Amino acid sequence: MPAGVVDAAAKGVRLDRHAAGASSLLLRRASGGNKHLLVSASSHLLFRATVLATLALVLLFAVHYPSLLSHSFTLSSSSSPHSPSSSSSRRSSHRSLLGRSGGPSSSSSSYSGAAWEREIRRSVTPRRADGLSVLVTGAAGFVGFHCSLALHGRGDGVLGLDNFNGYYDPTLKRARQRLLASRGVSVLDADINDGALLHRLLSAAPFTHVLHLAAQAGVRHAMRDPQAYVSSNVAGLVSVLEAAAHAGQQQPAVVWASSSSVYGLNTESPFSEDHRTDRPASLYAATKKAGEAIAHAYNHIYGLSITGLRFFTVYGPWGRPDMAYFSFARSIVAGEPITLFRDARRDFTYIDDVVRGCLGALDTAGKSTGVSGGRKKSGPAPLRVYNLGNTSPVPVTRMVAVLEKLLGKKANKRVVTMPTNGDVPFTHANVTHAARDFGYRPTTSLEEGLRHFVDWFVQYYKVDIKGGGNNVLAAGGKTGKRKSMAMSAAS
Ligand SMILES: O=C(O)[C@H]1O[C@H](OP(=O)(O)OP(=O)(O)OC[C@H]2O[C@@H](n3ccc(=O)[nH]c3=O)[C@H](O)[C@@H]2O)[C@H](O)[C@@H](O)[C@@H]1O
């Protein structure tokens, strides 16, 4: 018996004796003589029987309702967003879902149990014939949020997962999560490095796909926090692929976010999937390139169908505050200076185009071929990589000019030589492979896309652009918090 158990057992006996002793003392005082000895013995026996019966009951309860003994986990998607009680039940279910730090060790034990598994199955059951059942990692992130909405909107079953880290303002991620919940999509607080939880999730329901978008983003930030990139983009990817390879019911196909940054110092343009990607310019790019090599290995060994999508500077409503277009908009509104890297050009790609690309990649992923929990494969499985760009690079100065026009205010610009911090001077996507295989055709110009972004930005942060964009009103009609949130978001 382990020491702790021995200890507890001994304590139990001591408690037992103490209690029995106390009751016999009372009886002795009440009746005296030999009679009390009999009563004392029977009371002793009665006490022990009660303790044993209680223990048996607790054990029975734990076996049949393990989830009730752990955290409450009601998935918020089950409540109608329109019913009067739904907002409070949503709030309380959020509290139960969000009440943890989301670190690898915190969620593993609490997300489990038969009832929890039933909720997972309910959540990922598609509402349309031949619909997909998709686990979306990074679902409270920019691209994950939009993809989750789109998948759910067309009747696929979606379960989201996000660790809500503080790389940029988590309140924006929480707002995305709330909006998803109001549409019926749940996002669990969990980390992709929590392999045990991923395994439980993928064993609980027949997921057909994993859309793996959780990652440590940001090209230049990699110099400040290199380990975060290794943890999320390398270890985290391995954790997701391990869980997919060994999924209990069926191996899902995996579609994941690579990056245009893998082209690194490539000088051929436009960038094609056939070009060199062995000269990354940043650790971020190196981790994404490593991810593509890791994907190859998992496809080869386990027969996992894996598709890597190389995103090109994706922007739009509900975007990432750390990205240039977003932080520039905030600085312009606040009258703060912005720093432009001379001659930088990007193939800015609008979120709706990227979402269509992601769904096209999911729809055409093909099946994984691993059997017996990933121990062997029945044949080769698809291994694909695609550019998802806009095919028309734009100077960053032009992007700022469009923002100035939309916000009705001039930027305070400082133009400097591009620092050697991992950035690359230009990106330009060739998307013929994605067009051929799933009809990917970006249709949104930078002007149009930024207009949608600014519409959302002024509404979300209550920016008064009629007054020249100087005024940021108290946000949301409920609290002034969002104003400071807007101004303090990570960059
Ligand atoms: O497409 C990609 O692969 C990558 O796109 C973006 O990376 P990046 O293109 O560097 O996006 P931003 O940080 O928004 O920068 C956009 C442009 O603005 C320029 N920039 C950035 C920051 C700044 O202060 N000044 C400035 O001129 C950059 O040089 C770049 O040309 C994302 O941040 C990455 O997560 C993603 O993987």
TrEMBL record:
User: What molecular functions are annotated in GO for this chain?
Assistant: UDP-glucuronate 4-epimerase activity
Instruction: State the InterPro entries in the record.
Output: Epimerase_deHydtase, NAD(P)-bd_dom_sf
Tell me the keywords, alphabetical order. Answer: Isomerase, Membrane, NAD, Transmembrane, Transmembrane helix
Q: Provide a GO CC annotation, any one.
A: Golgi cisterna membrane
EC number(s) per UniProt? 5.1.3.6
- Answer whether the UniProt record assigns the keyword Glycoprotein to this protein: no
The entry's localization annotation reads:
Golgi apparatus, Golgi stack membrane
Q: Which domain of life is it from?
A: Eukaryota
Region: Disordered, residue numbers:
75-111
Q: Would you identify the family this protein belongs to, as annotated?
A: Belongs to the NAD(P)-dependent epimerase/dehydratase family.
Q: What is this protein called?
A: UDP-glucuronate 4-epimerase
